[in-house]
Design a protein that fits this description.
The protein is an alpha+beta fold. The chain is built from ten helices and four strands; from the N terminus they run βαβαββαααααααα.
Length: 235
């Protein structure tokens, strides 16, 4: 797995009192939030492809969002969005494909037809996976989410030339990583359960993922996330 060797200083988060950047000046910008899993997908892709100098991070405070973001940048007022070549694009799964196709750096989709087909299926399923887990977090979450994590365990066994979904690291791993990161924290810290217990492929996937700087530099602060989760989901 390729790795990012750039130890990047995180830019400060912009709020409603912050001035806008000089939009549409030719700079490519990723508008994002450090705590947003959808934005994290594009951030990982950027880092993995070594584009830290080509795509500038513009982190926004989602609780105190600047008015100029909706007015001047992205009328939908969501993150992530990418400002590139005089236009602004949205939707995280579309953006990771766009960054992979339109920028230099290691390719994140395989040429092999079987892997390509499996990758498209897994990408189309990721929203179902995350929705099923989030909707099962009340009641008996360990049992209620078992089938979802078993699905991931099974999917990780389809190709044997590496520990990732398609063998080698790809956009599929990028799509699932931010959510499995959050689920691992929630289950460990709140439900006192290891989602990788009895799932050796998932355990190996998490271990390999955590060796790579491109991903590690995007990770959450677990304690902060637990507090946010408790207020939002358990309050």
């Amino acid at each position: 797995m390729a790795t990012s060797t750039v130890n990047e200083v995180r830019p400060p988060t912009l709020s409603s009192s912050s001035d806008p950047p000089p939009v549409f000046d030719g700079t490519t910008r990723l508008y994002m939030s450090y705590g947003c899993p959808f934005a994290q997908r594009v951030w990982i892709t950027r880092n993995y492809k070594g584009l830290q100098d080509k795509i500038q991070l513009v982190p926004l405070d989602l609780q105190d969002k600047p008015a100029w973001y909706k007015e001047k940048v992205h009328p939908e007022n969501k993150v992530p969005s990418l400002e590139h070549d005089g236009k602004v694009l949205g939707e995280s799964l579309d953006l990771i494909k766009y960054v992979n196709a339109n920028f230099e750096g290691p390719a994140l989709l395989p040429e092999d037809p079987a892997k390509k087909e499996a990758g498209e299926h897994l990408l189309s399923y990721v929203e179902t996976f995350t929705r099923n887990v989030f909707s099962s977090l009340k009641g008996d979450p360990v049992n209620a989410t078992s089938a979802s994590f078993d699905y991931v365990e099974s999917a990780l066994g389809k190709f044997d030339d590496g520990p990732f979904f398609l063998g080698q690291f790809s956009l599929v791993d990028v799509a699932y990583a931010p959510f499995i990161e959050r689920f691992q924290i929630i289950f460990s810290e709140i439900f006192k359960h290891d989602i990788a217990a009895g799932r050796p492929r998932l355990a190996a996937w998490i271990e390999e993922l955590n060796k790579d700087d491109a991903y590690k530099q995007t990770k959450l602060d677990p304690a902060e996330f637990v507090e946010v989760f408790k207020k939002r989901f358990l309050g």
